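Note to self: keep these together.
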Amino acid sequence: MKPIASLSLDLDNKWSYLKTHGSPTWKALPSYLDVVVPRVLECLAARDLRITVFVVGQDAALEKNRPYLEALTAAGHEIGNHSFHHEPWLHLYSEEELEEELVRAEEAIEDATGQRPVGFRGPGFSLSKTTLDVLARRGYRYDASTLPTYLGPLARAYYFRTARLSQSQRRERSHLFGRFSDGFQPLKPYRWRLEGGSLIEIPVTTVPIVKTPVHVSYLLYLASFSPVLADSYLRVALSLCRGLRVEPSVLLHPLDFLGAEDARDLDFFPVMNRGADWKLERVSRFVDALAARFRVVPVGEHAERLAVRSGVPSRSWRAQVGERTPVVPEAIS
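Structure:
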């Protein structure tokens, strides 16, 4: 049998990208879900795949988005919580603010989709011990907010170079995409040891050893220079995962399914100068490569298997003041 891999989509909407980028036009809550969701569903249905879609609560609260979110659950996909306001500085929230943020998102998502989320991913991979404590208290089964890579500061520098941000906004976003120290985090899933219980953590997979990204947006960026390079890079990454027994968790984004003709006001993102047909063909190749080597499941199913597996490492949060990431493994359960 093939080893397990999980696949997920962060359903960030157009307004959330504009908001993080500092554009005031986000306040009108512009959306491209009517374009993205049908393309995602078509891609997955053609391969008989079910994945996890992390939904933003603000989108679930709007009636105009309901048909597209309902279509995701009707197709059998798991729905996760991606916060309500999609603010990558979520780690700066107080416990009361986090509780309100998560509850509000849960209620909107469940009302729109019929599913109560049991998994969470922080916007921009934002995470804190307080977030984990609130998630555990609210009965969540897993978190998927860590990205073990050294390249976070480079991604943030590129983002800041193109963004229209005040100094206070830059401070808010100072942990966007993570820190260099995130590269020292483990690739394999583990169990958080928390005061109120435990929680499975499923990191977004990066290339074993070198810790460079494997998510599809990065593969598209490589393919914009050389499709052969992108295919080879993914093949090596997946071979290393199999050889080192890393069960990958691979990430999709909406812009992977959108071309320049679909969202011209998002041209500050890499590869948004390419057409939709080119991107969709590449995404299909990447997903096929994953499915050829692994049995692809939603993140929730991945977490369920881990929850009953012996030998999953256990970790406690040992962050320093100002840190947002764990640094020390505690024990083996």
